[in-house]
Automatic annotation (TrEMBL):
Lineage: Bacteria, Bacillati, Armatimonadota, Fimbriimonadia, Fimbriimonadales
One Pfam family recorded for the sequence: DUF4331
Name of this chain's protein: DUF4331 domain-containing protein
Superkingdom of origin organism: Bacteria
Amino acid sequence: MTHRTKKYIALGMVALLAPLMLIGKVRASDHADTPDIAANPGTDITDVYMFPSPTNADNIVLVMNVHPLIGSGEGTTVGFDPNVLYQFKIDNNGDGVEDKVIQAKFTGAGAAQTVSISGPVRPSMTGKDSVQETPLAVHGTLNAPFSPKSGMTVFAGGREDPFFFDLEQFLNIFPDRATPLTGTPVADPNTPKQSSWRAPGVAKDFLSTGKYNVLSIVVELPKRSLQ
């Protein structure tokens, strides 16, 4: 299993007064790890990325992936949860309190959804409490890049899941760890447990071979706008 690094960026989302917030340097990934989160895939953050723009040295790219395990060919038909406020929270001084926030809010259902972007702006509320800030004037649609304001480009829609996970070997090591995703263990629980991950080149990427997708929120903007 490959772990992703989320550095100096906090993210959160608000759904029915139950916010999730990650602050600081975190290594993690989540794919339907509990029955509750499997039943509400729109609230399931799989990975978050932050990296320099490959086309503009003055820009930075933020990516939030949610709603894992979308089947092959279904990426353009699934929408985000309209009851969720998806947020990138940026802490610039290491005090664990966000200084800037970028928010995405979706309206409608399925592929016909529209998306509004707020920020980057100093948030009206911090920590576990959040409120949608004033949206930018230009809204977008799913699976099509748009520019909410000058210098910012946003994409929201289906993409291939980039997370690498050898599920078969995981269940060989932990045969009792079946989830709502797997249903029953791959391995016979009466056989001896394996003790280690398979070597590179031998491990099997379950998400790739199963052609599973996620919903991605991608924001590219000038670095200076986050400072």
